[in-house]
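Lab channel / #folding
Pinned by the channel admin:
"Please post every new chain as: sequence first, then the structure tokens as a reply. Keep commentary short and put observations after the output so the thread stays searchable."

First post following the new format, from NK:
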Amino acid sequence: MPDRMTSKQRHRCMSHIHSSGTKPEKAVRSWLWRHGYRYRLNVKSVPGKPDIVMRKYRTAIFVNGCFWHGHEGCKDFVMPKSNVAFWQSKIDRNRERDIRNYQLLADNGWQVIVIWACKLKEDMERTMSETVIALNRNYLRIVQNKKR
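Reply from TO:
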């Protein structure tokens, strides 16, 4: 199916998509704050510059858009039909960068939580409950390591 927009329109549309402060990210931040969790945003000193950094839990949270990060098996990720080589390369680079960042964080003792935008749309409360369980597990790990 051909693109419905001219190349100028497409360029303008794509240039307005930002990497931080997205709706899913704001929803996660709002939920965490309302439930008493405190955090910092896009901390440059933490490898990969995560969307949300929770030092107390030694946890980095990434809120990933399904299209930009190539969420396999997700209805929101469909490879564009035009300029396929460009998009395949871009999404592959994003995936590789994500894996590299997650590994770097793990090597530095950080736990990584990835929240997919589609999961927030499907069931925000369940997704955030799973996130809190992971945070609490991370915190217990920290406390137990301090006792040793």
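NK: Helices lie at 7-15, 23-34, 84-107, 117-122, 124-147.
TO: also worth noting, The first strand starts at residue 40 and ends at 41.
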